[in-house]
Specification:
The protein is mostly helical and 49 residues long. It contains 2 helices and no strands. It is flat and about 35 Å long.
Length: 49
Amino acid sequence: MALCAADCLLWKAPDAPGGMWSPGALLGEELVNRLREAAGMTFTVEETA
């Protein structure tokens, strides 16, 4: 997961204002897609009451 995030930051990093960013907040769908392809991870949205 860390390597996918680093690769994404290196090659696909969006222009973002300075400050603290988590990989998920900064890279969004690009990171999710990379994790699905490279690591076979799955993600779902769950509704809560």
